[in-house]
Amino acid sequence: MSIVSYQLIDNIGVIQLNNPPVNALSQALRQGLQQAITAAQNDSSQALVLICEGRTFIAGADISEFGKPPSSPSLGEMLTSIEDSQKPVIAAIHGTALGGGFETALACHYRCAAATAKVGLPEVKLGLLPGAGGTQRTPRLAGVEVALELITSGNPIGALQAEQAGLIDRVVDGDLLEGALAYARELVADAAPLRRVRDITIDTATVPAELFDNYKTKLARRARGQIAPLHIVSCVEAAVELPFEEGLKCERERFMECMQSTQSGAMRHMFFAEREAAKIKGLDRGTATREINSVAVIGGGTMGGGIAMNFANVGIPVKLLEISDEALQRGLGIIEKNYGITVSKGKLSETQKEHCLSLIDGTTNYDDLADVDLVIEAVFENLDIKKQVFSQLDSACKPGAILATNTSYQDVDLIAAATRRPADVIGLHFFSPANVMKLLEVVRGEKTSDEVIATTMKLAKTIRKVPVLSRVCYGFIGNRMLRHYAREAQLCLIEGSTPERIDTVMQNWGMAMGPLAVGDLAGMDIAYNARKALTDEQKGNPKTYCIPDALVEMGRLGQKSGAGYYNYDAKTRARSSDVGVIQLVEEKAAAQGVARREINDEEILNRLIFALINEGAKILEEGIAQRPGDIDVVYAFGYGFPVSRGGPMHYADTVGLQKVYDTLNQFHQQTGEAYWQPAALLEELVSAGKTFKEWAS
Ligand code: 3HC
Ligand code: NAI
Questions:
Q1: What is the pLDDT of residues 400-421, one digit of tens each?
Q2: In CA terms, which of 376, 452, 514, 523 is 20 to 30 Å from 154?
Q3: What is the DSSP string of 527-595?
C-alpha cells in the first residue's frame, strides 16, 4: 500500500496516510499529502477527510530528519496547501495526534476524533516548540491560557477535554471513518464555511494583563535553563499581538534557534536512546516471552511496598511475603498510606485505590507462592539472607516462574547459584520510590536465559518503567558510577567547599538535586550501616566518608531527623545551612591533614561529572552496558541528570572527548589517584577522533 492513498466515497474524498509505525511526517508523506490535496481540488469531491492507517494519526514531524538539510515541501508549505483548500478538509484522529501531526489537524478546517484519541504538542520535551503554526493556531481556537498550558507542559489531552477546549469539533463513537464521513456530509449539507483557524482573531480583552510575564517567571523556575519553554510563551504572545503571518515568522525563527541548540540535540538523543535501550543486542526478535499474570514480592519494606504497587496499578495481582505478621501489617499499612496520598492529590479515586489494594494480598507462607509467574525479592541487602530466600523460592515456586532480585550491589550470579534454576534468575533493580521512579535496571546473570530477559524487558513497559539492560558488576550501571560522583562531592567538601556551594553548582547546572541534599533525603544512616559491614580497605579513603560518619554519629541522619548536611524546618522542610556543619568539616579536614582551599564552580562540576563519564567509559569497555545511550537513560531516569544535557555520555560528546580526556589526565597528575586515569576506551576514541555516539553506531 502506498504511503498516501486517495479514494472517493460518494461525494467525499478520503485521503489515507500509511507510514508505519506512527505516520511521522517524512518528506515522502508531506509530498504525497500535498499532492493529494492539490489533485482533489479538481475532482467531484465536496469535502475531504484526512485519516490514518495503523495505530495512530500522525505522531509528529519525523524526528530522525531533524538536523539534516531541509527537503521540500516543508511542513509549513504543506499545511498552507491544506488550509488554502477550496473544499473543507476534516481531520479524523485516532491514537495520538502529536506535534506536527496535531498542527496538521489544526490546519484542517474541522477536526473529529475517536473518544480514545489524544492530542498534544510535546515538542518542548524535545527542546523544541511547535514549528508549524501550533503556537499560533492553538490560542486562536482554545484561548491563550489553555494554549500556554498545553504547549509548555507538552502533555497530551484526551479527545473530550480537547473538544471542551475547542480544539476538536466532534468526538466520534464507533467506527472513525464512518463517523468522519457522516460529519463531512453534514458539513456539506449545511454548506459549512471553510473555517481557517489563521483567520480567527484573539480577543485581547480575554487575555489577563501580566499573564505572559507571570508565566515566564513561573517557567523560568520550573524549566531551569531550558530555552524552549520561554520561547513558547513569546510565540503565544505574538499570536495575540501580531497578524498570523508575522506570528508564524516569529515562531519559525525561534523554532530554528531551538532546533540548532545543544539542548534540543540532547533531548532528541534521549528520545531515541530510551527506545533503543529496550532493544537487546544478540537477542532474536522472535524470542518467546512468558506470560506474567501474577507476581510475588518478598519483603514489604521501602522498596517491596513500592514494587508491589507498580503491579497492582496495572491490574496484576501481587502476593506480598514478609517475615512476620507484624512486619506484614506494617508493610501493607505503608502501601495503603501511599495510595491515600495519591488520592488526596487527586491523582487516584477512592474506588481505584480500593481496587489496587484488593489486588495486594499479604502472606508469611512460601506455600502461597506456588502459582505465581514472577517473584521479586526485596529483603535486606545481605547476600546470605538473599541466598536463603532464593533457595526457599526454588522449592516453593512452580517450574518456569521467574525469580528476580532487587539487590543494589549483590552478585546476581551468586544469588542464582542458590537455586537449581539459574536460567530463571535475573536482577530487577527498581529505584526509590519504586512506585514513582521510571528507571528499571534489568541485570542479566551469566546464566539468565534469553526468554527471561525478553520477558522482563517487556514487562517493564507493562508497568510503565524504562528498562535498561546491565550485566553483573558491583552496583551495576547506575550505582557503580554514582560512587565516583559521590566520592568527588565528599572530597570537594573536605578540601574546601561547603554543602550549599556543591549542591548549588550541581543544581544550577541542571541536576534535579545536589549530591549532599540527596544524601539528606535518602537518609545517611543507610550508607553508614552499609559501611560498618566493610573492612577499612573496602571503605577506601577516610576523606570520602569521615564527614557523613560523624554527622550520623551526631544523630544528623538527614531530613528524617530534621538535620543532616543542612537543618530542616519541621513544618515546611525548608533547608538552611548550619555553621556547626562547616566547623565539623573544618575539623575533619584538619584531622585528615587537608589544607582547605577555594574550589571554583568549574572544578566542582568537572570533578563530579567527569568522574561519572570516566566510569561510564569503563562500563562500556567491559560490556556491562550495551551502549552509551543506555547509560544516559539510566542517569536521566534514575538519578535526575538533566535531560537537556542528554546524560553523561552524550554530554561528554558535546563537551568534546579530548577536553574530557585532558581534564582527567590533569586530575590524575594532581592527585596520583588511579581512578582518574582515563579509561582505555576514552583514550582509544580520542586518538581515533571519534565520539561515543560514533563508536556505538
Ligand atoms: N519521528 C520519527 N520516529 C518516531 C517518531 C517521530 N516523531 N515518533 C515515534 N517514532 C518511532 C520511535 O523511534 C520508534 O521507533 P523504533 O520502533 O525503531 O524504536 C517507533 O516510532 C515507535 O515509537 P514508540 O516505541 O514510542 O511507540 P509508542 O506506541 O510507545 O508511542 C508515540 C507512540 C506516543 C507516538 C511516541 O512514539 C511519541 O511520543 N512520539 C514522539 C511524538 C513527538 O514528540 N512528536 C513531535 C515531534 S516534533 C514536531 O512535530 C515538530 C513540529 O512542530 C514541526
Ligand atoms: P527495608 O529494610 O526497608 O525492607 C526490607 C524488608 O524485608 C523488611 O520489611 C524486612 O522485614 C523484610 N525481610 C527481611 N528478611 C526477610 C525474609 N527473609 N523474608 C521476607 N522478608 C524479609 O529495605 P529496602 O530499602 O526496601 O531494601 C530492600 C532491597 O532493595 C535491598 O536489597 C536494597 O539494596 C534494595 N534497594 C533499595 C533501595 C533504596 O533506596 N532503599 C533502592 C534500590 C534497591
A1: 999 999 999 999 999 999 999 9
A2: 514
A3: HHHHHHTS-HHHH--GGGTHHHHHHHHTT--BGGGTBSSSEE-TTT--EE--HHHHHHHHHHHHHTT--
Domain shared by 492 and 514, yes or no:
yes
Distance in angstroms (rounded) separating the CA atoms of residues 124 and 267: 9
Q: Give me the chain's average pLDDT, please.
A: 96
Give me the CATH number covering residue 440. Answer: 3.40.50.720
What are the tens digits of pLDDT across the range 70-117?
899 999 999 999 999 999 999 999 999 999 999 999 999 999 999 999
- Same domain, yes or no, for 579 and 441? no
Query: Could you tell me if the CB of 406 is within 6 A of ligand 2?
Result: yes
User: Is 558 inside any structural domain?
Assistant: yes
Q: Whose CA is nearest to atom 35 of ligand 1?
A: 59
pLDDT tens-digit series, residues 560-573: 999 999 999 999 98
Give the pLDDT of residue 340: 96
Q: Distance between CA 320 and CA 681 in Å, rounded?
A: 44
The answer to whether the CB of 45 falls within 8 A of the CB of 8 is: yes
403 touches 411 (CB < 8 A): no
The domain in which residue 521 lies consists of 479-591
| Residue 614 domain flag | no
Residues 499 and 516: their CA atoms lie apart, in Å, by 6
Q: Same domain for 232 and 312?
A: no
**What pLDDT score does 220 carry?**
86
| Contact indicator for 59, 102 with CB cutoff of 8 Å | no
Does a structural domain hold residue 270?
A: no
Expressed in angstroms and rounded, the spacing between residue 295 Cα and the centre of ligand 1 is 31
Tell me which amino acid residue 250 is.
C
Domain end marker among 591, 622, 651:
591
C-alpha cell at 492: 570537594
| Grid cell in block for residue 99 | 506535534
Residue 525, ligand 2, Cβ within 6 A:
no
- CATH code for the domain in which residue 246 is found: 3.90.226.10
| Whether residue 315 has pLDDT greater than 90 | yes
Cα separation values, 579 from 144, 495, 604, Å: 48, 17, 21
* Atom in ligand 1 nearest the alpha carbon of residue 62: 1
Q: Looking at the structure, tell me whether residues 90 and 210 fall in a common domain.
A: yes
How far is 592 from 570, CA to CA, in rounded Å? 34
Q: Which residues line ligand 1 (CB under 6 A)?
A: 21-22, 24, 56, 59-64, 75, 96, 98-100, 103, 122-123, 126, 128, 130-132, 134, 272, 275
Q: What global pTM score does this model have?
A: 0.94
The pLDDT value given to residue 68? 86
Model pLDDT for residues 113-131, shown as the tens digit of each residue: 999 999 999 999 999 999 9
Give the ranges where 362-433 is alpha helix by DSSP (H). Answer: 383-396, 412-416
Give the Å distance between the CA of 451 and the centre of ligand 2: 27
Closest CA relative to residue 93, chosen from 73, 120, 123, 75:
120
In a domain, 34, yes or no: yes
Query: Which residue type is seen at 291?
Result: E
Number of structural domains, the chain?
3
Amino acid symbol at 552: V
Q: Which ligand is nearest to the CA of 248?
A: 1
Regarding whether 205 and 67 lie in a shared domain, the answer is: yes
